[in-house]
TrEMBL record:
This is Beta-RFAP synthase. InterPro entries: GHMP_kinase_C_dom, RFAP_synthase. It comes from Paludisphaera mucosa. It holds the Pfam family GHMP_kinases_C. Residues 213-291 form the GHMP kinase C-terminal domain.
């Protein structure tokens, strides 16, 4: 018998680039894959599809739909999938997308499909309906820009992918705030948002191409932080009608300002939040001091404040033998 194991990253989403009748390709987006908190799943052959561990009901629902959605020549085989490690959902870290893609990848690998296409993974996982960052990040890692949807339901193309400087440390902070919008609530929020003004969309595209990507490629942390800060302000203003301000709440806005005062750059909110991020190159001692300060001042726990780094590779799939029947 063979046991499969997969480890995938988390996703920071820096912002969408535009939507509305004047935009030829809807949404588009830019984001970064990071090592932590990440997800880890395992799968082994079974007589029927079965899910176990954290988020098992969500995995079970995916497993129920995958056989009907699969159109390849090789039939999918039943597996037992265990979620070994997963962070809390709806915190702005792309857990739903990475979990769904990991489940689809495990099912296909267990059925002998070694190199599924992105279209196949997107169809089975039912992800990528707005942003394609998580889809492409699952396969490739790194700093990613997707080009948006030409038609509803298509897979947005990856128009840029860069290795992100791994010596730039990334601080993740989750303030005490409600979960980010998702599912029907998210769809309703988008339906109620006004179109992004054409000039705003043009400015966001310029900031991403000429400032953000160029700064990352040139390893200029201050320029990267300045560009990301501007992107966050523009995107936040576009989402303000749905979330009540540039950020998900006043605590988030206060924390973003504080992270800047502490010497970090590019502070902002990932997707709908509530998770926040910031970048820097502090020493280990400085990291410990910053972490302790934020936890004490804001009554946050170990899972609410932590450091990570970019993940410049896609999800890792490994095979290990499992004991057979005696």
């Amino acid at each position: 018998m063979t046991r499969l194991r997969i480890r995938t990253a988390s996703r920071l989403h820096f912002g969408l680039l535009g939507w509305g009748p004047h935009v030829r390709r809807q949404f588009g987006g830019v984001g970064l894959m990071v090592e932590e908190p990440g997800l880890e799943l395992a799968a082994e052959p079974a007589e029927r599809f079965h899910a176990a561990g954290p988020l098992a009901p969500r995995v079970a629902a995916l497993l129920d739909r995958i056989p009907d959605r699969w159109t390849g020549p090789t039939p999918v085989r039943p597996v037992r999938i265990e979620v070994v490690r997963a962070p809390e959902e709806h915190a702005g870290l792309g857990v739903g997308t990475q979990l769904s893609l990991a489940v689809a990848r495990l099912v296909l690998a267990a059925s002998g499909v070694e190199e599924p296409t992105l279209d196949q993974l997107a169809r089975l996982s039912e992800r990528g309906r707005r942003s394609g960052v998580g889809l492409h990040g699952f396969l490739h890692g790194g700093l990613i820009v997707d080009g948006g949807h030409a038609t509803p339901g298509d897979v947005p193309p990856m128009v840029s992918r860069l290795d992100f400087p791994e010596d730039w440390s990334i601080l993740i902070v989750r303030p005490p705030a409600p979960s980010g919008r998702h599912g029907g609530d998210e769809a309703a929020a988008f339906a109620g948002l006004p179109p992004v003004p054409e000039r705003t969309s043009e400015r966001l595209c310029r900031l991403v191409l000429l400032d953000l990507l160029s700064a990352a490629a040139g390893r200029d942390l201050d320029a990267f932080g300045a560009a990301l800060g501007e992107i966050q302000r523009e995107v936040g203003a576009a989402f303000a009608p749905a979330q009540g301000g540039v950020y998900a709440g006043p605590e988030s806005e206060s924390l973003v300002a504080e992270l800047g005062r502490l010497g970090l750059v590019g502070a902002g909110q990932s997707s709908w939040g509530p998770s926040l991020y910031a970048f820097g190159t502090p020493s280990d001692d400085q990291k410990r001091a910053l972490t302790a300060r934020l936890r004490d001042r804001h009554d946050l726990g170990p899972r609410d404040v932590f450091w990570t780094r970019a993940r410049n590779r896609g999800a890792g799939l490994a095979t290990a033998a499992t004991p057979g029947p005696a």
